[in-house]
UniProtKB/TrEMBL annotation:
Record's keyword annotation contains Protease: no
GO function terms (MF aspect): oxidoreductase activity
Keywords, in A-Z order: Oxidoreductase
Residues in NADP-dependent oxidoreductase domain copies: 15-304
Coiled coil: none
Domain of life of the source: Bacteria
Stated name of the protein: Aldo/keto reductase
GO cellular component term of the entry, any: cytoplasm
Tagged with keyword DNA-binding: no
Amino acid sequence: MQKRQLGATGPVVSAIGLGCMGMSHSYGPADRAESIATIRAAMDAGVTLLDTGDFYGMGHNELLIREAIEGRRDEVQLSVKFGGMRDADGAFVGFDTRPNAAANFLAYSLERLGTDHVDIYRPARLDPSVPIEDTIGGIAEQIEKGRVRHIGLSEVGAETIRRAHAVHPIVDLQIEYSVLERGVEREILQTTRELGISITAYSVLGRGLISATPPVIGSDDWRGHTPRFQGDNLTQNLALIQKLNEIAENKGVTVAQLAIAWVAARGEDVVPLVGTTKRARLNEAIGAVDVTFTERELQEIEAVVPVGAVAGTRYAAAQMAALDSER
Protein backbone atom coordinates (compact mmCIF):
# COMPACT_ATOMS: atom_id res chain seq x y z
CA MET A 1 0.00 0.00 0.00
CA GLN A 2 1.32 3.41 -0.95
CA LYS A 3 1.52 6.09 1.75
CA ARG A 4 0.81 9.80 1.93
CA GLN A 5 1.37 12.33 4.71
CA LEU A 6 -1.56 14.39 5.93
CA GLY A 7 -0.47 18.00 5.95
CA ALA A 8 2.90 19.33 6.94
CA THR A 9 2.64 18.04 10.51
CA GLY A 10 0.20 15.13 10.28
CA PRO A 11 0.52 11.35 10.26
CA VAL A 12 1.60 9.17 7.34
CA VAL A 13 -1.44 7.21 6.22
CA SER A 14 -2.41 4.80 3.48
CA ALA A 15 -3.00 6.36 0.05
CA ILE A 16 -6.63 5.24 0.32
CA GLY A 17 -8.73 5.47 3.48
CA LEU A 18 -11.84 3.56 4.47
CA GLY A 19 -14.97 5.58 5.18
CA CYS A 20 -17.12 3.58 7.60
CA MET A 21 -20.36 5.60 7.68
CA GLY A 22 -22.36 3.28 5.42
CA MET A 23 -21.82 0.44 7.86
CA SER A 24 -24.14 2.15 10.33
CA HIS A 25 -26.57 4.46 8.52
CA SER A 26 -27.67 6.49 5.48
CA TYR A 27 -27.53 3.91 2.68
CA GLY A 28 -29.88 1.27 4.01
CA PRO A 29 -29.10 -1.84 6.07
CA ALA A 30 -25.56 -3.23 6.17
CA ASP A 31 -24.49 -6.67 7.36
CA ARG A 32 -22.61 -6.34 10.65
CA ALA A 33 -20.36 -9.36 10.19
CA GLU A 34 -19.47 -8.36 6.64
CA SER A 35 -18.75 -4.79 7.76
CA ILE A 36 -16.33 -5.99 10.42
CA ALA A 37 -14.74 -8.38 7.95
CA THR A 38 -14.35 -5.50 5.48
CA ILE A 39 -12.54 -3.33 8.03
CA ARG A 40 -10.20 -6.19 8.89
CA ALA A 41 -9.60 -6.97 5.22
CA ALA A 42 -8.74 -3.31 4.65
CA MET A 43 -6.19 -3.46 7.45
CA ASP A 44 -4.74 -6.67 6.05
CA ALA A 45 -4.29 -4.87 2.72
CA GLY A 46 -2.42 -2.00 4.36
CA VAL A 47 -5.25 0.53 4.72
CA THR A 48 -4.49 2.47 7.89
CA LEU A 49 -6.92 5.42 7.81
CA LEU A 50 -10.39 4.66 9.18
CA ASP A 51 -12.91 7.50 9.10
CA THR A 52 -15.98 7.66 11.33
CA GLY A 53 -18.24 10.04 13.23
CA ASP A 54 -19.65 9.72 16.72
CA PHE A 55 -23.13 10.32 15.29
CA TYR A 56 -22.90 7.55 12.66
CA GLY A 57 -25.62 5.25 13.91
CA MET A 58 -25.46 7.25 17.18
CA GLY A 59 -22.36 5.45 18.38
CA HIS A 60 -22.96 2.21 16.49
CA ASN A 61 -20.13 2.89 14.03
CA GLU A 62 -17.54 3.47 16.73
CA LEU A 63 -18.53 0.28 18.53
CA LEU A 64 -18.29 -1.59 15.23
CA ILE A 65 -14.79 -0.26 14.62
CA ARG A 66 -13.77 -1.13 18.17
CA GLU A 67 -14.67 -4.76 17.55
CA ALA A 68 -12.96 -4.80 14.16
CA ILE A 69 -9.64 -3.37 15.36
CA GLU A 70 -9.45 -5.19 18.69
CA GLY A 71 -5.83 -6.16 19.27
CA ARG A 72 -4.72 -4.11 16.25
CA ARG A 73 -5.21 -0.52 17.38
CA ASP A 74 -1.62 0.42 16.58
CA GLU A 75 -2.13 -0.49 12.90
CA VAL A 76 -4.64 2.28 12.18
CA GLN A 77 -5.24 6.00 12.43
CA LEU A 78 -8.73 6.81 13.64
CA SER A 79 -10.30 9.95 12.16
CA VAL A 80 -13.38 10.98 14.14
CA LYS A 81 -15.95 13.71 13.46
CA PHE A 82 -18.00 15.21 16.28
CA GLY A 83 -20.63 17.84 16.89
CA GLY A 84 -23.65 16.44 15.08
CA MET A 85 -26.63 16.07 17.41
CA ARG A 86 -29.53 13.70 16.74
CA ASP A 87 -32.81 12.92 18.44
CA ALA A 88 -34.21 9.49 19.32
CA ASP A 89 -35.60 9.13 15.79
CA GLY A 90 -32.16 9.70 14.29
CA ALA A 91 -33.01 13.14 12.91
CA PHE A 92 -30.31 15.80 13.06
CA VAL A 93 -31.16 18.59 15.47
CA GLY A 94 -28.11 20.81 15.09
CA PHE A 95 -24.41 21.04 15.86
CA ASP A 96 -22.53 21.81 19.04
CA THR A 97 -18.78 22.41 18.84
CA ARG A 98 -18.21 24.34 22.06
CA PRO A 99 -14.97 23.26 23.80
CA ASN A 100 -16.87 21.63 26.68
CA ALA A 101 -19.11 19.81 24.21
CA ALA A 102 -16.05 18.62 22.29
CA ALA A 103 -14.54 17.27 25.50
CA ASN A 104 -17.80 15.47 26.26
CA PHE A 105 -18.15 13.99 22.76
CA LEU A 106 -14.51 12.89 22.82
CA ALA A 107 -14.87 11.12 26.15
CA TYR A 108 -17.71 9.01 24.80
CA SER A 109 -15.83 8.28 21.57
CA LEU A 110 -12.77 7.08 23.45
CA GLU A 111 -14.94 4.74 25.49
CA ARG A 112 -16.81 3.36 22.47
CA LEU A 113 -13.64 2.94 20.42
CA GLY A 114 -11.78 1.32 23.31
CA THR A 115 -8.75 3.58 22.98
CA ASP A 116 -7.00 6.32 24.92
CA HIS A 117 -6.67 8.64 21.95
CA VAL A 118 -7.96 9.42 18.47
CA ASP A 119 -5.48 10.29 15.76
CA ILE A 120 -7.47 13.05 14.03
CA TYR A 121 -10.41 14.84 15.63
CA ARG A 122 -12.58 17.27 13.68
CA PRO A 123 -15.87 19.16 13.93
CA ALA A 124 -18.26 17.63 11.41
CA ARG A 125 -19.53 21.04 10.33
CA LEU A 126 -19.02 24.66 11.25
CA ASP A 127 -21.21 25.56 14.21
CA PRO A 128 -22.52 29.05 13.40
CA SER A 129 -22.92 29.86 17.08
CA VAL A 130 -19.32 29.04 18.04
CA PRO A 131 -16.22 30.84 16.71
CA ILE A 132 -13.99 28.30 14.97
CA GLU A 133 -11.10 29.61 17.10
CA ASP A 134 -12.90 28.40 20.24
CA THR A 135 -13.56 24.97 18.78
CA ILE A 136 -9.96 24.47 17.62
CA GLY A 137 -8.63 25.81 20.90
CA GLY A 138 -10.74 23.27 22.76
CA ILE A 139 -9.40 20.39 20.67
CA ALA A 140 -5.84 21.70 21.18
CA GLU A 141 -6.39 21.33 24.92
CA GLN A 142 -7.24 17.67 24.33
CA ILE A 143 -3.98 17.29 22.40
CA GLU A 144 -2.13 18.61 25.46
CA LYS A 145 -3.87 15.96 27.53
CA GLY A 146 -2.84 13.20 25.10
CA ARG A 147 -6.38 12.33 24.00
CA VAL A 148 -6.03 13.67 20.44
CA ARG A 149 -3.01 13.61 18.14
CA HIS A 150 -4.02 15.95 15.28
CA ILE A 151 -6.81 18.33 14.26
CA GLY A 152 -8.80 18.20 11.03
CA LEU A 153 -11.71 20.12 9.55
CA SER A 154 -14.74 19.14 7.52
CA GLU A 155 -16.75 21.02 4.87
CA VAL A 156 -15.54 24.51 5.69
CA GLY A 157 -14.51 27.36 3.41
CA ALA A 158 -11.22 29.15 2.84
CA GLU A 159 -11.73 31.87 5.46
CA THR A 160 -12.61 29.36 8.18
CA ILE A 161 -9.62 27.21 7.25
CA ARG A 162 -7.29 30.17 7.69
CA ARG A 163 -8.79 31.15 11.03
CA ALA A 164 -8.59 27.60 12.34
CA HIS A 165 -5.03 27.05 11.14
CA ALA A 166 -3.94 30.25 12.89
CA VAL A 167 -4.93 28.71 16.23
CA HIS A 168 -3.39 25.25 15.72
CA PRO A 169 -1.95 23.39 12.70
CA ILE A 170 -4.67 21.66 10.69
CA VAL A 171 -3.56 18.43 9.00
CA ASP A 172 -6.47 17.81 6.64
CA LEU A 173 -9.79 19.06 5.38
CA GLN A 174 -12.42 16.42 4.76
CA ILE A 175 -14.64 17.47 1.87
CA GLU A 176 -16.53 15.99 -1.05
CA TYR A 177 -14.31 15.70 -4.12
CA SER A 178 -14.83 13.55 -7.19
CA VAL A 179 -14.84 13.71 -10.96
CA LEU A 180 -18.48 14.77 -10.55
CA GLU A 181 -18.00 17.26 -7.70
CA ARG A 182 -15.17 19.76 -8.06
CA GLY A 183 -16.31 22.73 -6.01
CA VAL A 184 -13.21 22.40 -3.84
CA GLU A 185 -11.13 23.57 -6.82
CA ARG A 186 -12.72 27.03 -6.88
CA GLU A 187 -10.84 28.43 -3.87
CA ILE A 188 -10.50 25.88 -1.08
CA LEU A 189 -7.82 23.69 -2.67
CA GLN A 190 -5.60 26.69 -3.31
CA THR A 191 -5.93 27.68 0.34
CA THR A 192 -5.14 24.24 1.75
CA ARG A 193 -2.07 23.96 -0.46
CA GLU A 194 -0.83 27.38 0.58
CA LEU A 195 -1.12 26.37 4.25
CA GLY A 196 0.21 22.82 3.87
CA ILE A 197 -3.10 21.06 4.60
CA SER A 198 -4.16 17.84 2.91
CA ILE A 199 -7.55 16.88 1.53
CA THR A 200 -9.30 13.69 2.56
CA ALA A 201 -11.89 13.32 -0.16
CA TYR A 202 -15.20 11.62 0.52
CA SER A 203 -17.93 10.52 -1.90
CA VAL A 204 -15.27 9.84 -4.52
CA LEU A 205 -17.82 7.62 -6.26
CA GLY A 206 -20.52 10.28 -6.16
CA ARG A 207 -22.40 8.39 -3.42
CA GLY A 208 -22.69 5.35 -5.66
CA LEU A 209 -23.55 7.15 -8.90
CA ILE A 210 -20.21 6.15 -10.39
CA SER A 211 -20.84 2.46 -10.90
CA ALA A 212 -21.09 -0.06 -13.72
CA THR A 213 -24.78 -0.43 -12.84
CA PRO A 214 -27.29 2.23 -11.71
CA PRO A 215 -27.64 2.42 -7.92
CA VAL A 216 -30.73 0.95 -6.30
CA ILE A 217 -32.23 3.49 -3.89
CA GLY A 218 -34.36 2.00 -1.12
CA SER A 219 -36.95 3.81 0.99
CA ASP A 220 -34.48 4.14 3.88
CA ASP A 221 -31.70 5.47 1.67
CA TRP A 222 -31.22 9.22 2.14
CA ARG A 223 -29.89 9.62 -1.41
CA GLY A 224 -33.46 9.49 -2.66
CA HIS A 225 -33.98 12.92 -1.11
CA THR A 226 -30.97 14.54 -2.80
CA PRO A 227 -31.28 16.38 -6.13
CA ARG A 228 -28.66 14.35 -8.01
CA PHE A 229 -30.67 11.17 -7.55
CA GLN A 230 -34.01 12.59 -8.61
CA GLY A 231 -35.90 12.69 -11.92
CA ASP A 232 -34.23 14.23 -14.95
CA ASN A 233 -31.12 14.99 -12.89
CA LEU A 234 -30.54 11.30 -12.32
CA THR A 235 -31.10 10.52 -16.00
CA GLN A 236 -28.56 13.15 -17.05
CA ASN A 237 -26.03 12.01 -14.47
CA LEU A 238 -26.28 8.35 -15.43
CA ALA A 239 -25.56 9.38 -19.02
CA LEU A 240 -22.31 10.98 -17.80
CA ILE A 241 -21.40 7.80 -15.96
CA GLN A 242 -21.97 5.75 -19.09
CA LYS A 243 -19.32 7.82 -20.84
CA LEU A 244 -16.93 7.24 -17.95
CA ASN A 245 -17.71 3.53 -18.16
CA GLU A 246 -16.61 3.51 -21.78
CA ILE A 247 -13.30 5.17 -20.91
CA ALA A 248 -12.75 2.69 -18.07
CA GLU A 249 -13.48 -0.29 -20.32
CA ASN A 250 -10.98 0.95 -22.89
CA LYS A 251 -8.39 1.30 -20.14
CA GLY A 252 -9.09 -2.14 -18.72
CA VAL A 253 -10.26 -0.98 -15.29
CA THR A 254 -13.64 -0.63 -13.61
CA VAL A 255 -15.32 2.75 -13.59
CA ALA A 256 -15.00 2.83 -9.78
CA GLN A 257 -11.26 2.30 -10.04
CA LEU A 258 -11.06 5.03 -12.65
CA ALA A 259 -12.90 7.48 -10.39
CA ILE A 260 -10.86 6.68 -7.28
CA ALA A 261 -7.59 6.90 -9.18
CA TRP A 262 -8.68 10.22 -10.72
CA VAL A 263 -9.09 11.72 -7.23
CA ALA A 264 -5.76 10.30 -6.06
CA ALA A 265 -4.11 11.77 -9.15
CA ARG A 266 -5.15 15.32 -8.17
CA GLY A 267 -2.06 15.49 -5.97
CA GLU A 268 -0.01 13.83 -3.25
CA ASP A 269 -1.95 15.96 -0.79
CA VAL A 270 -5.26 14.25 -1.67
CA VAL A 271 -6.33 10.97 -0.02
CA PRO A 272 -9.54 9.34 -1.30
CA LEU A 273 -11.87 7.87 1.32
CA VAL A 274 -13.68 4.85 -0.05
CA GLY A 275 -17.00 4.08 1.62
CA THR A 276 -17.83 0.42 1.21
CA THR A 277 -19.43 -2.26 3.35
CA LYS A 278 -18.30 -5.31 1.37
CA ARG A 279 -14.94 -6.99 0.88
CA ALA A 280 -15.44 -7.46 -2.86
CA ARG A 281 -15.91 -3.72 -3.36
CA LEU A 282 -12.96 -3.03 -1.09
CA ASN A 283 -10.67 -5.19 -3.20
CA GLU A 284 -11.84 -3.35 -6.29
CA ALA A 285 -11.13 0.01 -4.65
CA ILE A 286 -7.66 -0.98 -3.47
CA GLY A 287 -6.84 -1.91 -7.06
CA ALA A 288 -7.19 1.77 -7.93
CA VAL A 289 -3.89 2.49 -6.16
CA ASP A 290 -2.01 1.08 -9.15
CA VAL A 291 -4.02 2.95 -11.82
CA THR A 292 -2.19 5.83 -13.49
CA PHE A 293 -3.19 8.18 -16.31
CA THR A 294 -1.56 9.70 -19.33
CA GLU A 295 -2.20 13.37 -19.99
CA ARG A 296 -4.38 12.36 -22.92
CA GLU A 297 -6.53 10.12 -20.71
CA LEU A 298 -7.03 12.91 -18.19
CA GLN A 299 -8.09 15.21 -21.00
CA GLU A 300 -10.54 12.58 -22.22
CA ILE A 301 -12.13 12.31 -18.78
CA GLU A 302 -12.31 16.09 -18.56
CA ALA A 303 -14.02 16.21 -21.95
CA VAL A 304 -16.82 13.79 -21.05
CA VAL A 305 -17.36 15.16 -17.52
CA PRO A 306 -16.37 18.84 -17.58
CA VAL A 307 -16.66 20.98 -14.47
CA GLY A 308 -20.32 21.68 -13.75
CA ALA A 309 -21.67 18.87 -15.94
CA VAL A 310 -23.39 17.03 -13.08
CA ALA A 311 -27.07 17.87 -12.65
CA GLY A 312 -28.40 18.86 -9.23
CA THR A 313 -26.68 19.92 -6.04
CA ARG A 314 -24.91 17.40 -3.82
CA TYR A 315 -27.25 18.01 -0.88
CA ALA A 316 -30.80 19.27 -0.57
CA ALA A 317 -31.27 23.05 -0.43
CA ALA A 318 -31.42 23.35 3.37
CA GLN A 319 -28.22 21.36 3.82
CA MET A 320 -26.45 23.29 1.10
CA ALA A 321 -27.33 26.54 2.82
CA ALA A 322 -25.72 25.30 6.02
CA LEU A 323 -22.40 24.33 4.40
CA ASP A 324 -19.62 26.79 5.12
CA SER A 325 -17.70 25.27 2.20
CA GLU A 326 -20.39 26.44 -0.22
CA ARG A 327 -20.34 30.09 0.83
